[in-house]
Amino acid sequence: MYLAVVILLMFALPLVFTLRDLPSIHSSAALLLAAGRWFVFWSVGVRSATAGLRQIAQPGFTAHQIFKLEGCDALPIVSELGIANFALGFAGVLSAWRPAFVLPIALSGALFYGLAGLRHTRDTRRSFNQNVALVSDLFIAAILAAFVTVAWRR
């Protein structure tokens, strides 16, 4: 289920919404800008907001399934991470209605997912879910970094 949600939010839905906008796109830069908008909405907005809500409500999933931590000592920290995820995600969702939010959220998302992905690389005995997190974090960080680079120059 985790893999399906990640694929849907990090690839499929941004792609579908970008393809929906194709008739109004007339250059490769415009294509990247449209794709960036939808990656911000789905991958940063919806993914981070839903992950944050889950980390707040069920911190054990992240602690036990993603980080392979045992016991309950880390649960308050995971809940705090959930609050940060939700805050970033909420702003990402709002970017669909406030285009001025897209670039700052893309930059924040690129940093967050890029640094999280790099942190995952240090775990030498990763579980399947940790590998999903690593690959998806680095993938979205690269997409967002490309978007930020093009948008910043415009």
Describe this structure as you would to a colleague.
With 154 residues, the protein is mainly α. The protein has one domain. It is 80% helix and 0% strand. The chain is elongated and about 55 Å long.
Q: pLDDT below 50 for ≥5 consecutive residues: which ranges?
A: none
- Chain oligomer state: single chain
Dominant shape: elongated
| Helix proportion | over 70%
Short description:
Helices cover 80% and strands 0% of the residues. The protein has 154 residues and is mainly α.
Sequence-ordered SSE layout with sheet pairings:
Blueprint: H1 2-20, H2 28-57, H3 59-66, H4 75-94, H5 102-121, H6 128-153
Helix pairs in contact: 1-2, 1-6, 2-3, 2-4, 2-5, 2-6, 3-4, 5-6
Defining traits:
single chain, 154 residues, mainly alpha
